[in-house]
Specification:
The complex is a heterodimer of chains A (293) and B (341). Chain A is mainly alpha-helical and 293 residues long. Chain A contains 16 helices and no strands. Classes of the chains: A mainly alpha (293), B mainly alpha (341).
Chain lengths: 293, 341
Amino acid sequence: MASRARRTPASVLLFSNGFIILWLIIAAFPFFWILWGSFKVELDFFSIADWTNALTGKNTETTYGRPFTGAGYYGAFVTEDFWRNGLNTLIVCFFVVCTSLTIGTLGGYALSRSGFRYTFWLLIIALIFRAMPPATLVAGYLLPFFEWNLWGILPTTIVVLVAINQPFTLWMLHSFFQSIPKELDESAKVDGCTQFQAFRHVIIPVMWPGVITTGLFSFLLAYNDYVVTTVLLSENNRTMVPQIAAFLGTTYTEGNVMFAVAAVVSATAPLFILVLFFQRQIVSGLTAGAVKG
Amino acid sequence: MKHRTFFWFFLPTGLAMLLFIAAPIVSVVIQSFYTPHEAVLVTVENCGPFGCKEETTIDQEATRELREAEPLGRFAGFSIYLDRGHLAVTEVGQAWQSSQSVGEFFGKLGNLPFYRALAFTLTYTFAVTPTLIVLGLMIALAVNSLHRHLKGLIIFFSLLPMIVPPLLGSLVLFWMLDSRGILGSAIQWLANDPGLSLKASTPLTWIMLIVYGVWSSAPFAFVVFYAGLQTLPSDQIEASQIDGATRWQQVRFVVVPHLMPLVTFVALIQLMDNFKVLEPIVGFNAEAHAQSLSFFILNDLSGETWLLSSASATSVMTLVGVAILLSPVLLRTWRDFKGKQ
């Protein structure tokens, strides 16, 4: 590798490094810009008079005496009660991840250990389900949920998100369990364990890396969902993403764009921290499906 | 594993998918053939001092009773699929007969909402997917030649566009591209046109959405290809170097064939995901210029009254689209499966 690197001509090196720097700017700059801008007033955030105002915060200083202000955050969290939506997101994500992992591990384990032909068809059906846009399903939920008074509350949304999550969870855990040697639970069964006991005492202790990776993706799916939460939650129970979408309608008319900006930053920040700690797991999860084919 | 044991292990997840994915599809298909009852009208004869008049009013009670007795509505067959909001058969026929050229015909087709949504969804899917694959491959190749310590940092920042909720990511870009935002003003300055607004023009809006799509999905392709590059056997590269292959030829004839299975995988996942496109349109506030099939469905459900039949008909046609997209993969998997036996 080193010998090849030494042979790389300067022009190629310059081009590839320049390209990476360009990509880094494209990928990361919007986030730094919005974080910086969220502490300004709207006139600086949308710097129409002079673009340097966005950096120096001239209008912010004339309004508040300082180049930074927490007014957007105050507006979002205190005036608009955005913390409530944050709490709802937390509840939804927690229960979706727990439920989806519990039933997903059982199903994924069974799929990886059963040699019969129907496991193939079940996985194909899961793939088809994975391809279907969630928007096509929501029309089917509304009528029964409304009839049975299930519409608008968090538990319904959690159950629906768990179900929509399952195809992906199954595929991921299936390929993960296949990488755990069959001999492990076979030998436990020879020693007199039932299938469930073998799973409980032999597989569960070694499955955590794969389960954590899958859990991360379940979390992201629940956290990022827009369709299901928008259609199935009532106004009081909204999670963060639909609430921000709802802000757009009201804030553009009231001129409180900074509320929405602060809310966007607040909703993005937890994900930064997540990537910071779990980067390795996320990367391995993304590639796991690909390597298995 | 015995059938019985498998059944109990698989039951919870199977039940969840059956109840909340399979059953809604059935319900959507049924709903798409029904339409709400029309109001029951009664005609009463009012006789006053100036003679008798016939008046037609809505019989509220009878209407409510009828709607409660048959909540699905009345059977409408394929009429919802064929009406103006969907396949618009009559309008298409008229457009075909009155148009002089094919271009004019497609222009008229573009005025019908369903065809407009379909056109945008397909354009988006087939513009974004190849672009992001090429971009992801380029980033992966560039990052692979870097020093080890820098790689982790670059992967961290590269993951961000993909990991944030699509609605938030598109909002961030939208505010930057706003005519008062930092990129929007930069583009105005570059184009030397102070009145230029990306939001106001349909082609520019489409480009903006496609740029967002590539920005948010390229990291996925990058990470997958980067992982694939780690398994590239170095002796193949060396052999090609000895044979005098240039840098470009090495990439073209050694690296790309090695990554081909991964390209297929990324293309499949991204085709499925881009076909679902919805959040960018909400985030970019672009529904006046671009609507996708998913947006079209949600639009029917977000008003005062739910237009369930209309949303269901669009859903069914979207599912048909997904099936067509997926069919080559399914056919190949099936052949592989048959071959193995």
